[in-house]
Design brief:
Layout (H helix, E strand, L loop, with lengths): L3 E8 L3 E10 L2 E11 L6 H9 L5 E9 L3 E2 L2 E3 L6 E3 H7 L4 E6 H9 L7 E3 L12 E6 L3 E7 L6 E4 L12 H13 L12 H15 L5 H9 L2 H11 L3 H25 L5 E4 L2 H4 L1 H4 L3 H7 L5 H5 L3 E4 L4 H14 L5
Parallel strand pairs: 1-4, 4-8, 10-13, 13-14
Antiparallel strand pairs: 1-2, 2-3, 5-6, 6-7, 9-14, 10-11, 11-12
Length: 336
Amino acid sequence: MSGSRILAGDIGGTKTLLCLGEVVRGDLRVVAKARYESASYADFSEVIGDFLSTREVSVIAACFGVAGAVVDGVCRTTNLPWVLDQRLLSRQLGGARVRLLNDLEAAAFGVLHLPEGDFTDLNPGAPPRSRAPRAVIAAGTGLGEALIVGHGAAATIVATEGGHCDFAPRDEREDRLLRWLRRKYPQHVSYERVLSGPGLVEVYRFLVEDSGGGENERLAAAMARGDGAAVVGEWGVSGRDPLCVRALDWFVRMYGAEAGNLVLKSLATGGLYVAGGIAPKILPVMRRGGFMDGFAAKGRFSALLQSVPVRVVLNPEVVLLGALHWAGERMCGVEE
């Protein structure tokens, strides 16, 4: 492979996805893609080095969605010991233009480029509001939130770190959960401590302790061997373990509650998009109604929330897609 290419990436606490794109007759196409386990690398420059080591290409522009706040072109990743700097990455890439985006900023831009088949509706029949702001929320390794203001080529994406705002209990059981979490995180209990892969495990472990009944030994062994959140999710969706079922149902309701908070704070009545790696894996539970119950339980504003379109993003590479299109359209002038 040779020639000029656009480099894009999705940099998360668990995985890093990289791809090369090229413009063919006005269309932006992916020509190479690879996945890396983030924790296996000391820094992001090593990942780029691996990816480009077997590819004779000249990178003209690069855009990366990063799980963390981007300030003055620098990001200290939230769930990795990495520091990314646009200037240093540009130097590594031979002077290419480089842009770092918060990962949800990239996801929101990616949402604008997804086909209809990459969504499923949780609130069918909600009336579209074509001029209203929209919001994106995504639980995965962490919890991300972003806003979309405007439509088409003029859309503005607003990055946030709303997932790190204070967790707000809604009832006595959630009060107990907050007190339990404060013993582990005395400085600050954020929504991310609850609404993320690690958060799902925390919810499950709280229920084990709170119920006083112990846990399934086979389940505990499976969690110890691999991804605890994935195990709780699988056993909860399938109904194999009552505590996993309860944890997942509760998780989904709290997810809906924070999504509703995001919509209220931004008045994003144009729609909510639920992205991230967790929602598609627990879709049967998301569809049972708990998410929408939590989302709309806002007292005097319940009717407003019930009128907001809510869609789950099924494409797991929406961050990568958003970063690629940002580089193509906003850095290289490719027209959609």
